[in-house]
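Troubleshooting: if your tokenizer reports a length mismatch, compare against these two reference records.
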Amino acid sequence: MALEQTRAGGLADRAERAVLVEIDLASRSLSSRTAAAGARLAVVRPDEARLGEEATHPLDAAPESAQLSPSTELDADESLAEFRELVASAGGIIVAEIMQRRQRPDPATLIGAGKVEEIAGVAASTEADLVLFDHDLTPTQLRNLEAALPCRVLDRTQLILDIFARHARTREGQLQVELAQLDYMLPRLAGKGKAMSQLGGGIGTRGPGETKLETDRRQIKRRIDHLKLELDSVRRVRKQQRQRRESVPVPTVALVGYTNAGKSTLFNRLTGSQVLQSARMFATLDPKLRAIELPSRRKILLSDTVGFIRNLPHTLVTSFRATLEEVAQAEVLLHIRDASSTYGEEQKTQVERVLGELDCLAKPRIEVLNKIDLLGEPEREGLLERASPAGEVAVSARTGEGMDALLEAIDRALHTDPVLSAELRVPQQEGAVLAAIEAGMVVHSRRYEGNLVLLTVSGPASLLGRLRSYRLRDESLPLG
């Protein structure tokens, strides 16, 4: 979807043109460097490329070192491919891609003086609206790059914040995004330069609206304090809702996973809902709760949550804590993984890193290998053979394959309101009791003796407790 861009002469609706910049640090694996060797994967390639530029920038060097942690999980090409998806989710058009190999980041400009000149030439020749860096920039680096380049400069965190701002629909989601944007903006006011000299309407400019250079820290801090108070109110309401839910023994199971792993598609498949499912990253920001019934006839609440990503900005994790509390309160987590991804293990590591920030690593988790319909037959068979012994469940949310096995796995993992087996003796005239048994339990056998119905059933302990007067005996039922 094209981004709206405000210009002095009026409104012009068009997609913004972006130059992507990726850095391949020497600390990556040798195979990763080989795969990225000579890589300047560009729609428009400048004639005079300087790969591996090591020059330092004469501009005022930053006292703070660049916060550039090497992406050891992904090689350079995979990292660039993921960055492309982020730009597409923000509605931008990629006009050039530039990759540089360096031993270490430049503290003044991240990439070195020669590469800055090259990017300036590419941006000018392609009439780019902005240059996007797949790394975070310090305030000094942002200021220096804005001064040297002919267009706006955004880093990875700003891009992700912009995508969140585009997809926030509820008041709560908008509050959380605005808080994250202001937290990130505050130390960078001096470095915003051209981007804050006038109101904008493109990538990285939507959200708080405080985009003029004269925006001072005091106003932003007051706004941050106000947003925190509003989000505290949201948390109180959520806590009250959870307390009401907890008064009835209905456990919550939360879907977590890397962005675009298929969580919303799986949520729709299991619940029959119609929440937005999209190939775009971060299509889901606001949590969704729906009740479903398990094979044991237990009822659970299934929660769909925001997806995680490599180097997810800490400001987002903090701001979205109200939303992510659904994860913290869940009894079981379904970790949805893209079985067709070439870097699934790296994605798993990133998800577990965020779960660690939320203190949720100790929770029971079921590994759900999704999108098996995208695998070739040999890969598919190998995955199905491996999944069961490893405690994983292989499914296709799109086709519905593996849903029964997944529901059974959830049943086994739950400890709240355990399933018991029992023998019941119910008079035939007790129609309401018999209806409740049929609706909430699995009936294994039924026979009649005079006016009595003798039943062997299994079902939630909460329901069996209400039928205590009809029980002959009961015992724990081993599921699976």
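Reference record two:
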Amino acid sequence: MANPIKDPGTSWRDAGTDFIKSEVSGGAVLLVAAVAAMLWANAPFGDSYESFWQTKLTLGFGQLAITEDLQHWVNDALMVFFFFVVGLEIKRELVVGELNERSKALLPLIAAIGGILVPGLIFLSLNLGGVGEGGWAIPMATDIAFAVAVLALLGKRIPSGVRLLLLSIAIIDDVIAILIIAIFYSKDISMVWLAAGAAGILIVYLMQRFGVSRIWPYWAIGIVVWVAFLSSGVHATIAGVILGLMTPAHPVKGRHVIEDLERQLHPWTSMVIVPLFALANAGIVISASILADATASMIFWGVALGLVFGKVIGIGFGISIAQRFGWGTTPDGVTSSHAWGVAALGGIGFTVSLFIAELSFENEQLLEYAKIGIFTGSIVSALIGVFLLTRRRSKAGAEVDRAAGP
């Protein structure tokens, strides 16, 4: 009798394919949500945008009640699921995916580090010692959903290796961004609450060791860990990442746990939660005076130039240096021209950049400057990436068509 359990290799390849498809669809919905937020904030009834998202909502009762406005419920609660899925993706890639071998991980690691350092340095060169210096991490992020969606527009003209390279760099970028949020954007740490969160994580570990397979105990402890992190001063989304990384990457009693969780949660995070985050955070009032003020601010230029030039220089030269010294190889079919196109698409920093901007600035005016910089830098980066990738094709002609496949 045939074994009903799917071949692990096929299972993980299917999960990767589903991930890319979901990111493409999610990128489209995310764009619609961002545009909707902008239209809402700039409509004649635009005042309702801010008043709606500042509406207070209390969940729980008595001493266990938590009161936040709707925007913070989205940012601090719903986005935990997004970061949980990010943790799952990181674990999958590190254990059984494209980053599970040093030779495969080294090149995207070097490229991602370059894509983190150069944008940060550009931002700090313009803002060090000023009111905006706290936003140094904003241009470091890459939005996987938008970047993959842009690649999808080019279809089969682009070799599959290009998508693989972009995803590998973006996933490592996510790891570094998560560490930055945990280390540099945590405030007023409460060791008591942090210890409670650590105790919850230990309980999850022990449940795994003792073979607890039912899902509800993990959800229950997960809520406790989230509350503890929320109260500790360490951003609550870090709890989601840690729990994602703790999820078993290999089959448990015939069940591919990470694959199953990704299939269940990824459509919700990419199609609902992240677009809802954009709807709650992307709505800024645009006028000639606001744009004039923004373009006169070094925060705007630090973010925009960091995304556009910082990512191209950091990722592009990171790939070139890795290739020059033989530190890993690019996927099959990826040329140097493709690599520079990927580097440009790395400057699409929408979701995580907005998230870090919200953590960086409490002053609404400074936050607006940062958001306008994010929008500008992300749009310009997307256009440059498409230009580089399509320009390469126009020069190579039919040869590229043959390499890309039918």
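Descriptive notes for reference record two:
- The chain has one domain: 20-185+235-404.
- The chain is about 75% helix and 0% strand.
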